[in-house]
Design a protein that fits this description.
The chain is α/β, with parallel strands linked by helices. It has helices at residues 43-50, 84-87, 94-106, 114-123, 129-139, 154-167, 184-196, 208-214, 233-265, 277-290, 351-358, 393-398, 414-420, 425-428, 437-449, 467-478, 491-497, 517-543, 556-585, 590-621; strands at residues 3-14, 17-28, 32-37, 58-63, 69-72, 172-176, 200-204, 217-222, 225-229, 313-322, 325-335, 340-345, 366-371, 377-380, 403-407, 410-413, 455-459, 483-487, 500-506, 509-513. The chain contains 20 helices and 20 strands. A hairpin with a 2-residue loop joins strand 8 and strand 9 (225-229). Helix 5 runs antiparallel to helix 6 (154-167).
Length: 622
């Protein structure tokens, strides 16, 4: 494939801190690359450099001639007095410039240059630009196009910026955490959009399902260098472990040889005066290998919840509304000990309000809510990230406690506890203002967990956290001896943690689903498919004239066809299930993955077609 961008010998430092050194890679045209690494390793800085937003110390960037780059930053900014629709015309692109020239021409007496501008409008397909941007905004749940930017939440602003980058139809799309603050439906729409487009993509995301389904290459930043993996996230996990195992073997071998060579080096200089200089040079190279430390942070943190009794909370006929908007409508539920509940639903359906009601932070309109006496809440909120930027990391945690009680008589110092969450001793003495967004989130999480809550309520805990931290948090929550409620759009995280779901559909409708997110999605997809089939059958039946009674019975050929259809549908369903299992395994090579994805679409069409014919024949049998 043609390289859209060639990166050679790139180095970036901030004072004494080197983020990456002498790294080189290419972005082939049509590639979809996920950028992975621990918070603070330089992922956002690298993307800022590639997007031309930040300088670098050394290296060379070579773009293919005419390459159009669009960048979705983690925290997009627009003038506050601007409307949503105006924000989508804010950045300069060829299409927008043509539209602006055309509008200026129309408002100018005599319409100078109109004919040329009409040709340009046709060439850039600019006539349909506004309709397309409104269509994408609507899919992303932004429907008030005249709303001022100042009135948008951080999540809404991110979605406006996403629509802005997608509509520009760039050759290279760079995205920093594109799924943050997006509900699951919008995330899945974006997955499909990126998979079906020919855009070259480089993105940072913690959403592992998103990485699996969209990316065909992973670049990992670790220890100031990069490692490349030609596959999706599942492939990366497997090959990264193989790399670490091989490196550990190499380090062990080097250590054994190092001891022998070190003894030789320690002899008197004259003892090696006639030795070949190459042996001395080789010793220093060997020393570098022997002293490597593998950053394979597969640590686990034992949970340390306070004792929790049998009575957790009992909700009896709860009602809550804001004007005409219902949040709870005669809601009753008894929460069980050690229950792990996930909450999903579109933005604005009342998920965050619900968990605030449980904690007494938002009053009810009516109903009775009883919380058990032993319940001790630990609340991770989207708004709770408030630290003094001029305070050191370790001092923030020490203000809560000098030691952390882990249960069973085990205690950790504050420094030891922070290391579980990937804060090195050096980083612990850094000031908060030097931390990345993800590192601040990680610190906030530490301050909540170290208080030993027995009922954790986590509102979007995965935003801005790196994958290593998510793995630690998942392990912690699986072993947690208490109750957990999680609101998250991270499907992988939900699948790992929850026993069942509350599905918020809006207007006070809440469904209790017995399973994780993937179980729910499969159930909902099948339900939607059956509903479409039923609707299609009803419409076709209504459109057809009523058959004469004497022709209502099956012919011999139709009976044979009816029997064959039952067998064919069953075989097609089985083939579909086998392909779905293979696709979800994450082990398929790219070409086979593409082939099977195409085949599953064909199967669904065949099943629908044959099911419709089976329904027609079954009516004759009645």
């Amino acid at each position: 494939m043609i390289p859209l961008l060639q990166v050679e010998g790139l180095t970036k430092s901030f004072g004494d801190l080197t983020l990456f050194e002498n790294i080189s890679f290419t972005l082939p045209e049509g590639s979809r690359i996920g950028l992975i690494g621990q918070n603070g390793c330089g992922k956002t800085t690298l993307m800022n450099i590639l997007a031309g937003k930040e300088s670098y110390n050394e290296g060379k960037l070579t773009f293919q001639n005419g390459t159009k780059v669009a960048y979705l930053p983690q925290l997009p900014e627009y003038p506050e007095d601007m409307s949503v629709i105006d924000a989508c015309f804010y950045h300069t692109t060829e299409v927008i410039e043509v539209i602006k020239e055309y509008e200026k021409c129309i408002s100018t007496e005599g319409n100078p240059g109109l004919e040329e501008l009409l040709n340009k409008m046709d060439f850039y397909k600019a006539w349909d630009y506004e309709r397309q941007i409104k269509q994408i905004l609507t899919i992303l749940e932004i429907t008030n196009f005249e709303q001022p930017i100042s009135q948008l939440s951080g999540g809404q602003l991110k979605r406006v910026a996403l629509a802005n980058t997608l509509i520009s139809k760039p050759d290279l799309l760079i995205m920093d955490e594109p799924t943050n603050h997006m509900d699951i439906e919008a995330t899945e729409w974006l997955e499909g959009y990126l998979r079906s487009s020919n855009i070259t993509l480089l993105m940072v995301t913690h959403d592992r399902y998103f990485l699996d389904r969209v990316c065909n290459e992973i670049i990992e930043i670790e220890n100031k260098t990069i490692y490349q993996y030609k596959g999706n996230y599942s492939y990366y996990v497997e090959k990264r472990q193989e790399r670490i195992d091989a490196l550990n073997t190499e380090i062990q071998r080097a250590n054994n040889l190092y001891r022998t060579e070190l003894e030789w080096m320690r002899r008197m200089p004259q003892a090696r005066g006639h030795k070949a200089k190459y042996r001395e040079d080789a010793f220093y190279e060997l020393e570098k290998v022997a002293k490597q430390r593998i950053s394979n942070k597969q640590v686990t943190l034992t949970s340390n919840a306070s004792y929790i009794g049998n009575k957790i909370f009992e909700a009896d006929h709860l009602y809550k509304s804001f004007g005409n908007k219902k949040i709870l409508d005669d809601f009753s539920y008894i929460f069980a000990r050690y229950e792990k509940l996930g909450i999903i639903g579109e933005n604005g359906t009342g998920k965050s309000t619900f968990i605030k009601i449980l904690q007494g932070l938002v009053p009810l309109d009516s109903g009775n809510l009883e919380i058990g006496e032993t319940v001790k809440f630990g609340y991770y909120s989207q708004e709770g990230l408030k630290f003094d930027n001029n305070t050191r990391v370790i001092d923030i945690v020490k203000d809560i406690a000098e030691v952390v009680d882990m249960g069973n008589g085990k205690q950790l110092t504050v420094s030891q506890f922070l290391q579980y969450f990937l804060f090195t001793p050096e980083k612990q003495y850094s000031y908060v203002y030097k931390l990345s967004g993800g590192e601040k989130r990680r610190l906030y999480l530490c301050t909540i967990l170290m208080r030993s809550p027995n009922f954790l309520i986590l509102d979007e805990p995965t935003n801005d956290l790196d994958i290593m931290t998510l793995q630690i948090l998942e392990e912690y929550l699986r072993e947690f001896k208490g109750c957990v409620i999680v609101i998250s759009h991270d499907r992988y995280f939900m699948d790992k943690i929850v026993d069942h779901l509350f599905v918020f559909s809006g207007n006070g409708v809440i469904k209790d689903f017995p399973g994780n997110y993937t179980d729910y999605r499969e159930w909902k997809s099948e339900k939607d498919r059956q509903a479409k089939l039923t609707q299609k059958a009803a419409e076709e039946k209504k459109a057809k004239p009523e058959p004469k009674k004497e022709k209502n019975k099956m012919s011999y050929a139709e009976k044979k066809e009816f029997e064959a259809l039952e067998k064919e549908i069953a075989e097609l369903e089985e083939e579909k299930k086998q392909i779905e299992d293979a696709l979800s395994s994450g082990t398929l090579p790219i070409d086979e993955l593409t082939a099977k994805s195409n085949r599953i679409g064909e199967l669904m069409d065949l099943i629908d077609e044959k099911t419709m014919r089976w329904l027609e024949l079954s009516e004759k049998q009645q």
